[in-house]
Specification:
- The protein is α+β, with helices and mostly antiparallel strands.
- It has one domain (18-72).
- The chain has 2 helices and 3 strands, in the order ααβββ.
- Helix 1 runs antiparallel to helix 2.
Length: 78
């Protein structure tokens, strides 16, 4: 099931703001936001796509002009 779009119609891509992206990540990691809220905050930070690498345990967040922020995650033992 598809969720609500982040924007509808024509929209300018917000400028890439790495500090805002990191703030959105930390809020989400602290459990302060839902996933849709995190996606909306990422969009407002200028993120247009992201790539998850399960083998390397990283997520790369991309801006429209080639900007990239890579977040690494520790291995979790269950």
């Amino acid at each position: 099931m598809q969720g609500q779009p982040l924007v509808s119609g024509f929209a300018d891509i917000p400028p890439y703001d790495e500090a805002a992206l990191i703030g959105a990540l930390r809020a989400d990691q602290a459990g302060l936001t839902t996933f849709p809220e995190f996606l909306a905050a990422s969009w407002r930070a200028g993120v247009v796509s992201y790539d998850v690498n399960f083998q390397n345990r990283t997520v790369s967040y991309y801006g429209a002009r080639g900007e990239c922020y890579v977040e690494a995650y520790s291995i979790v033992d269950l």
